[in-house]
Amino acid sequence: MKTPSIIALIHGPDQPGLVSRVSSWIFLRGSNIVHADQHEDPEAGIFFQRVEWIPSGQMEDEAAAFKKFVGEELNMAAKVALSTDRPKVALFVSKIDHCFHDTILRFRSGEMAGELACVISNHDDLADDAARYGLPFHHIPVTKANKAQAEDTQLKKIHEHGTELVVMARYMQILSDRFLNEAGCPVINIHHSFLPAFAGGKPYHQAHSRGVKLIGATAHYATADLDEGPIIHQDVTRINHRNAIPDLIRKGRDLEKSVFAQAIRLHLDNRILVYNNKTVVFD
């Protein structure tokens, strides 16, 4: 069993000696670093670091002390988490079920450092499947006329379940700016194209009409701007003139599952820093 550790994501103005000061703080407490990686954006003058260590003392106290040190002495921002944390995740889905099943099975197999808390859908097609998985299922129909009321119900449900992350497994509705602001947690979406190409609806049809030779999938954080949030992970596969639209959809769905899973895993493992609508992903 892995020894419990503290994980910190740090970013702020670059300055001399940051790596040394961070590692010295951990070393002088008698703690042991097990992973450290850093990146500098020379154009913006911003330093980014992910550091993980096994604490010498009480985990919560040492984590709080480190966050205070980073803020007060380094003048930088820090997100600090414990490897023992198991954030609760709400799964949003419509009718398309490949990412729904794949995501649930990955959580059940222990791949993800979190816990699926509930399934929320604007259709009831997957209610029986959710029940077989032992997951609470909330059917909340969404129309143009009731969208605000439906989102109120969605927000109530995710807050009741203590949700710390929402993942959109091909949930075919646009979440409003108000929802994203009031959710109180990040939202990860899987889009079935290699963004920024073919944003919006029916990207495989768009790709086929353009005769492209690569199609892709993109996982990103959802923002008020449709399909323009910070990109977490992407992948592509080759196609050719012999591939019809059903072939593109079949190949694309394999990509969607793996890209979506990797994005969720990276987030729950505290490997992503977001800035200026971009991400730094520590592998």
Model description:
- With 283 residues, the protein is an alpha/beta fold.
- It folds into two domains: 6-82, 2-Layer Sandwich (Alpha-Beta Plaits); 88-281, 3-Layer(aba) Sandwich (Rossmann fold), CATH 3.40.50.
- The protein has eight helices and 13 strands.
- The strands form three sheets. Strands 7-6-5-8-9-10-11 form a seven-stranded mixed sheet, with helices on both faces.
- Helix 3 (98-108) packs parallel to helix 8.
- The two termini are 21 Å apart.
Q: Any idea of the CATH topology of the largest domain?
A: Rossmann fold
- N-to-C CA distance: 21 Å
Name of the level-1 CATH class of the largest domain? Alpha Beta
Overall average pLDDT:
92
Please outline the major beta sheet: 7 strands, mixed
Which features does this protein show?
Rossmann fold; 13 strands; 29% strand; 7-stranded mixed sheet; Alpha-Beta Plaits; globular; 4-stranded antiparallel sheet; alpha/beta; 283 residues
